[in-house]
User: What shape does this take?
Amino acid sequence: MRLHRLDITAFGPFGGAQSVDFDALSAAGLFLLHGPTGAGKTSVLDAVCYALYGSVPGARQAGQGTHLRSDHAEPGTRTEVRLELTVAGRRLEITRQPPWERPKKGKRQGTTVDKAQTWLREYDAVRGTWKDLSRSHNEIGEEITQLLGMSREQFCQVVLLPQGDFARFLRADAEARGKLLGRLFDTRRFADVEKRLTERRRATEARVREGDTALLADAHRMQQAAGDAMELPDLAPGDPGLAVAVLAAAAVARSTARERLTVAHCGLTATESAHTRAQAELADARELARLQHRFTEAQDRAARLAERAGEYEETRARMERGRKAETVAPALELREDAEHAHRRAALAEANARRALPEDQADSGAPGLTAAARRATEELGSLTSARRAEHRLTELLAERDGLDREERADEHALREADAWLDGWEPARAALQTRIESAQEAAARAESLAVRRDPARRRLDAARRRDQLTSDVTAAERRALDSGQRAQQLREDWLDLKEQRLTGIAAELAAHLTDGAPCAVCGATEHPAPARKDAGHVDRDTEQHAFDEHQKAQRQHDEHQQHHTVLRADLKAVTAEVGGTPVARIAEEVTELEREFEQARQDASVLHAAREELRRAETEREQRLQSRQQSAVRAAARLTRRDTLDREQATLEAELTRACGTADSVAARAAQLERLAAVLTEAADAARTAEEAAVRLKDADARLSDAAYRAGFDTPAAAAGALLDSATHRALQHRLDERQSEESAVRAVLAEPETVAASRQAPADLAGAAERAAGAERRLREAASTRDEAARRTTELDRLSARAEDGARRLAPLREEYDRVARLAALAAGTSADNERRMRLESYVLAARLEQVAAAATARLRLMSAGRYTLVHSDDRSGRGRSGLGLHVVDAWTGRERDTATLSGGETFFASLALALGLADVVTDEAGGVRLDTLFIDEGFGSLDDQTLDEVLDVLDSLRERDRSVGIVSHVGDLRRRIHAQLEVVKDRTGSSLRRRGT
Assistant: This one.
């Protein structure tokens, strides 16, 4: 990194615009930045740091934003820092403007705050022009950090060497040194490793305890299943040997349970044999009792049959009389049917005669038939009168229809007159609706033209907001990918450093006896270097480099995507401006509402036109209907005269035909009723005479049938006749009697039943009691056997689960032992870590050893070969070791603490340490070349000879094409260093003046 030019405006003590030409100052290699105390020497360095990182170093960080502005600046002058530099082969220009509280423009009172601004440009040597790269704070900060390979803190320690900090570093204890080195070398990943190991140890320990707890839970279940046959080990979760003790106790419990199961099986077999014998004895006793009861019951049934013998004979005799009476049954049914028919005929004749006229009440059947014939003939003569009466009815109905038609025409005429009276106002209202709808249609067309641009503007506003969030997300992704690329770059550099450290072993792998060494040229190789376990080969380094390049390409893609999104956002913003989406949406909504309202108003145009057309058609129809009503009225008048004349003729004819009746229909009804009554009475008289003859014939036949069947009278035969229900009941009694007699005889003839009756009564209660006892003993034996089997099965299942859990827990316990050992070793608490050095301290100790070696090369020159800085990993008191720093005095040959150095010695020792640290951090950052360094104060404590030696060391930095700026107010340096940048202060603010270039 080489600084070319710095422009400062209204920054710190500089009220106006100041410029620093570092190219001119760096030409001499060593230049002096001097001036009175408080003039602003350090502010120049602050401006460089602010241009690069957007903040100032150290304790001055509180002065960010508006506090960076010079109090001497004019109100209208904005604070600005512009730095031109070359880094990684690229010439860049960074311009930063902090937030600015300025007066409002125009005539407005008060102030307003402008946001901070940042620009990054790159010089195109081919075209000879500057090219804009970015105006994003985050993008620019990420780009500069990536190019320099250092954070702001590292830059301030490496490029802006603060001597006071390194003097305190020399005198600090191990903890303070660790904090500074950790900040410079970023050893957080090693601290994260320690933390990760501790977390893994805790997690693994918890899982081991969880597994032991589950194993103990299974052991408790096995103890419950085994009863008193198992004792649990007196161990807690996490104790060694817990799984072995649990499995041993489970094996003993399983063996005891199997022995008890065998004993229970033997007892169950003996009990089953006794139970079988008791059941057979009980079955024999039950069979003997059954046969004895059967014989006794058969004897009782035979006695009951002998007692009911008389009843049986009586039933049999009754059944015999019933069979004889069945031969008389047809004659009885015939006589009964004839009697019923005679009664019905007599009753029907009496009813028919009651309806006859008095002059026909005593007439016989022939006389009634002749009278009915005369009434029928008179009824036929009324046909002409009926036709006249029907015509008169139609005539009257037609007269009523004419009256109704006249009333309807009068009503329609009044309605048409009323409707035609309101025709003109209705037509005017419809015409007004049509005109309003036409105006709404024109308004809808106008709004439709405005609607599409408004919608496009709303879409653009929404896309603007979406792109804003996308730009933020893309910026965040670019930052994350940049950090990942930086991290992979650091990992690659670590591997590269490890490979370089072990490069001797890699070169030794290709040595052969007799062949010269590529390094020293020797042909003998008595002790070639060997690769250690953590050796990094070329492939590993190349893989890390490829991963870094891949991450860098991904970061470039994210950056390009972010740039594209920003360009899209700019284009959309230019189109729609900064109007909020809500306001545009309200305008679009209002426009849509007006358009919908106009479209709805215009939608009634067709309906209004149709309604006007229908109204005009209806007007024509009503006018035509009024004319037709007048024509129908004249026709009705002529028809009424014709109907009146025909009505008079018909009424005269009907008066002659009706006689005393009210109408022809009434006279015809009288004749029809009379003819029907006479005919019915004649038929009833003939039917009654015929029924009397049939009844007399049936009586004769019944008397003859009863005599032939053996009955004295027909009544006796009727009394002996049985109905079907009584016949079935009597037959059932006889069948039951015969079945019972056969069954009793069969039982009393059975040999086994007769033999059982001759034995002693069966002891059924005793046999049942003995069988119940055998059943109870069998259930108890089976329960004992099942309980033993259940215990054995449960113990086998739980033991298998415990063994499986122990197998799964074994590798976890091995992992816990391994992780716990590593965590204790990394934390410095393990007995194997003799110096109690944490992993992070170990890494920092290696870095401190490199810094001490690099610083010694310059310290020997500054101290004329007297002092050497060495790293010490000895423990201090009861604390941990690793970050000790001692100085070796060549005059005395003794090693002592750096806190014993004098003031001047402390200065050049801290200067040497700062330069050494700058070299190490530069290499750590990927070898970024630092061509410009600044050293701030401390030279006043040196004598002339030491000052010359220190300046010689600083001047030797030019051999590496570096330029060193010394910040000091020591007067002797102004005589020794020709190239100078003087800071001059006065009441109006400080200014810069270059000399000797």
Remarks:
- The radius of gyration is 67 Å.
- The mean pLDDT is 78.
